Amino acid sequence: MTTVTASRRDTPAVALAAVTAFGLLLGWATYTLYGTQGDRRAVAGAAVTMVVLGEGLWLGLKLHYWGEATVFLAVGALLTAGLSAYLARAGVRRWWLCAVLAPLFAGAFYLAEFFVLDRLIGAF
Fold it and tell me: 52-73 pLDDT, tens per residue?
């Protein structure tokens, strides 16, 4: 008979900490994107699109759900292009930073999921 013990997967505190951290980041990014002026808006736009692109990378590379990953990556690319165009029309001088930083932030998001959350919570 196998005894089942509590594991790190049963700890909601890890998920709560991750949701809180990313919630604060997205709150800052959304406020900065629409509520302020200056070049920080382009960085904030990249932070907003990071989540969609990063989840697309996770779905494809880690979970091998390539159909869903393709949708997430396509929507993330469209969101990045749309936010970059919005920033350019709004007169942000370095609007192109959104398009440049979005894939870099998405890679960092994927690595955070891979090295932190996957190690703490466990793989699927």
Answer: 999 999 999 999 999 999 999 9
